[in-house]
Amino acid sequence: MARNVSTQSRIGFTIGAWLVALLIFAPILWTALTAFKTEAEAIASPPTFLPRTFTLDNFEAVQDRSDYIKHAINSIIVSVGSTLIGLAIAIPAAWSMAFAPSKRTKDILMWMLSTKMMPAVGVLIPIYLIFRDLRLLDTVHGLTVIMTLINLPIIVWMLYTYFKEIPVDILEAARMDGAELWNEIVYVLVPMAVPGIASTLLLNVILAWNEAFWTITLTSGRAGTLTAFISSFSSPQGLFLAKLSAASLLAIAPILLLGWFSQRQLVRGLTFGAVK
Amino acid sequence: MKLTPLFVGALTLALAGTASAQTITIATVNNGDMIRMQGLSDRFTEETGIELNWVVLEENTLRQNVTTDIATNGGQYDVMTIGTYEVPIWARQEWLVPLDALGDDPEYDVDDLLPPIRDGLSVDGTLYAAPFYGESSFIMYRTDLMESAGLEMPEAPTWDFIAEAARAMTDRDNDINGICLRGKAGWGENMAFLTAMSNSFGARWFDENWQPQFDQPEWKETLDFYISLMNDAGPSGASSNGFNENLTLFQQGKCGMWIDATVAASFVTNPDDSTVADQVGFALAPDNGLGKRANWLWAWSLAIPTGSQQHEAAAQFINWATSKAYLELVAAEEGWANVPPGTRTSLYENPEYQDAAPFAQMTLDSINAADPNNPTVDPVPYVGVQFVAIPEFQGIGTNVGQLFSAVLAGQMSVDDALAQAQAATLRDMTRAGYVK
Amino acid sequence: MATRQTRALARTMMAPAVIVLLIWMAVPLAMTLWFSFQNYSLINPMMTGFAGWANYTYVIGDPSFTQALVNTLLLVGGVLVITIVGGTFIALLLDQPVWGQGILRILVISPFFVMPPVAALIWKNGFMHPGYGMLGHLARWLGLPPVDWFAQYPLFSIIIIVAWQWLPFATLILLTALQSLSEEQREAAEMDGANAANRFRYIILPHLARAITIVILIQTIFLLGIFAEIRVTTGGGPGYASTNIAYLVFRTGILSNDIGAGSAGGVVAVIIANIVAIFLMRAVGRNLDA
């Protein structure tokens, strides 16, 4: 961006942008600060900004009550596992849609997206019954399967939009050179598609991580994810704002850090074909 | 996919823990006493070698999860925490394992359980759930505020006195509300309170032919009284206040009176959490001179679903958690004031408990005053004080609770809410086949 | 270009995804359809047998059905308007040469990483609570009476929370689109002496049209099923003021344990979602054509 902008307007824009960004970030910042306050200070009026007495008691109380590590591991397995399986199924599908499109390709794509519009509450009982009979209730792999299915349409869609941007000529050229289909994929397509695949992977890990209906209804103790973890801290007895904040911070911290560190990869690919 | 083996490995690792020792899964509510039980449960594992897998959930989520599980015979849980509402209904459907073993164990002393509570958890004389803690409701009030208002709380006040006192104690400039009552929608939240209150006003949910009674003057009187009292003397945002919210308000010294569960007594008198711990008095729930008081009866209890594969281990745990020994364990660790109340006669005869818990006698009197089999002034076809023990009540009660909560939020008039409650309840009762 | 062989290959490669999704859609949907014509209550084993259309008339006759329908559309529409207008504004701001771009972007996208129950809980308790929420403190500081958000503006409050979660998504897509606007185009417009408003109106906005389409499409899919935020904050109330179709289905099927009526509600919700989808495809589909 080498535009000539006067220093004055640059300062103006900077102040404006920071104000807006801090406003958007305020709820998370406030939660993070509250997590380190005592319960009494958390609801004091007028409020304190920085914790007057910095305490880690809330985290200790949260860990005592709920096994954070177990829930976090479940969240990681389910979100990463479902995304990897989803990619394995979606990459070939998206490849063929992008490079060998037929008249019906778009319809199929739209149909796939429309499966996501099915309201989860409407099919809870059927799924619950199926899970019971397949002995999948409260299992990490059962949850992984559900999460794969839920996010598969988004994965296919995202990959399709990237693959479509890959110039076909290159593939043609590779084919002329006598490249096998497999080689075509591995040596030509994959390197070009890696940013797209990386971004798809990140987005879907985030979506699976944040899914809060199936993860709560289909699990009890063993396979509970962090969404189930947080559910035990909503409206408990007595003063709880600081403990709730600590639990909230713990629940979002891993994905927040992942998001921050990988935001370039995430952003680069997050277009859904919005840019041509 | 090079990562697949890694993933499978992690999966195996995650599941490996379940194979070795015997493990039972316990579903419970995130209330203070249950959290304490969870904290002390290491002792149980030490004694028996049975590992415990805890599922602690917020009340509504818990209820939804256990209901879905037991009704579909999902078998996810070995011990469930349920209330006096669910036990008789589920027991009749043979979804719960009878707890005969408790009766055979002399050390457990099943006859020590408080009779109204034991009745509420039994069907045809067979116990289907063991009470973890029992409660009625009563008035908790601030002795200092009452005094500065120039009033004296009788042991058994009337609603008129409560209204007068609440208005006199209110001091909005200093953020003191004369009375805090439940307003959050839910059959176990505002409807528990309002149903109990309506009993003392002579109202009832259904007449003997299961006709809804919201079009009767008694309900209008109840709701008018409640709304005007809350508008004059209640806290702001009352329509989203449930038990926990009001507890916080009271502990912060923002309520003059609070009519709610007797278990709250130990929380509001605990100086660690409460800023008003030494200024709390207790009185029976108010009445209107019609012979019924506005107090309810409830017991959070432990039961075994028939779908569980480990009945014996589950029964062992229930025995441990609801035994006299458990009360002594809590007393030794946290003091007598913190033991789960309202389940055993012996507790109320224990001088140490009486000393530590000034509210003990009032709690016992309130529990004994509740009569689930005969809850209203006029006869009714149902059992239950603050609920109607039919399967449909959860849905109906929550629906009506939404409407009454909307009145408190200022979104609807009393008359509209009652008319809609009548129509909606009639609709659901007709669908369920009660009203022909 | 596509030979018969590649076409067959393409079909084979598409098959797993299509089959898996077909099963995922068909089996539960078929079961839901079946249940929707049955008397089936989880807690009342006495209720059995064929119900005819009774479940459907019961759900559609629910006193809150019309309001739930309107609320669903308001919720989707409200969030879309806020995220697209706000997202465009923020994207334009971030596209300027400001100091600290990297950190700014991190701050702005953060709400996207917050799971819905956590978002609802921290807004409910930390911000919108009239007693100890940040907004309550702010009101008192300004000498105003604190607003009881979920009692007075329930649907609006939920729209705010959901919009906050989705604002980063809209912003990112719009920002990427904005940055693909070539420097020449901008400079040409500046040369022509077009002022900022005209540049936005005639250059930037048309360029963003496709991105906005995508945002509408993806967000609508997620917004139609908004549930956790309502459950955690208002429980659909007060009254039915914040009940949407998904929550109505939940209340009927799960809270009241009436699987028959809940399934009928589910089928109705699927139909509504499809109607919305058809409108959406008609309205925005053109923009998506390659």
TrEMBL record, chain A:
Alphabetic keyword roster: Cell membrane, Membrane, Transmembrane, Transmembrane helix, Transport
Q: How does it sit in the membrane?
A: Multi-pass membrane protein
Could you confirm whether the keyword Acetylation appears in this record?
A: no
InterPro entries reported for this sequence: BP-dep_ABC_trans_perm (IPR050901), MetI-like (IPR000515), MetI-like_sf (IPR035906)
Q: Which residues form the ABC transmembrane type-1 domain?
A: 72-262
Q: Where in the cell is it found?
A: Cell membrane
CDD domains of this UniProt entry?
A: TM_PBP2
Chief localisation class: membrane
Report if keyword Transport is assigned. yes
Membrane-crossing ranges are 12-33, 72-96, 108-131, 143-163, 184-209, 240-261
Under Pfam families, the record lists: BPD_transp_1
Q: Write out the similarity annotation.
A: Belongs to the binding-protein-dependent transport system permease family.
Q: Which PANTHER family match?
A: INNER MEMBRANE ABC TRANSPORTER PERMEASE PROTEIN YCJP (PTHR32243:SF18), MALTOSE TRANSPORT SYSTEM PERMEASE-RELATED (PTHR32243)
Q: What name has this protein been given in UniProt? A: Mannitol ABC transporter permease
Source species of the chain: Devosia nitrariae
TrEMBL record, chain B:
Q: State the UniProt keywords alphabetically.
A: Periplasm, Signal
Subcellular location(s) per record: Periplasm
SUPFAM superfamilies named among the record's database cross-references: Periplasmic binding protein-like II (SSF53850)
Q: Major place of localization? A: periplasm
- Signal peptide positions on this chain: 1-21
Q: Which PANTHER family match?
A: ARABINOSE-BINDING PROTEIN-RELATED, DIACETYLCHITOBIOSE BINDING PROTEIN DASA
The text of the family note is: Belongs to the bacterial solute-binding protein 1 family.
Annotated protein name in UniProt? Sugar ABC transporter substrate-binding protein
TrEMBL record, chain C:
Membrane topology, as annotated = Multi-pass membrane protein
The answer to whether keyword rRNA-binding applies is no
- Signal peptide coordinates: none
Q: Which UniProt keywords apply?
A: Cell membrane, Membrane, Transmembrane, Transmembrane helix, Transport
Q: Which domain of life is it from?
A: Bacteria
> PROSITE patterns, alphabetically?
ABC_TM1
Q: Can you give the residue ranges of the ABC transmembrane type-1 domain?
A: 69-280
Output the Pfam families linked to this UniProt entry: BPD_transp_1
Enumerate the subcellular locations listed in this protein's record, separating them with semicolons. Cell membrane
Q: Does the keyword Cell membrane apply?
A: yes
Q: Which family does it belong to?
A: Belongs to the binding-protein-dependent transport system permease family.
Protein name listed in UniProt:
Sorbitol/mannitol ABC transporter permease
The source organism is Devosia nitrariae
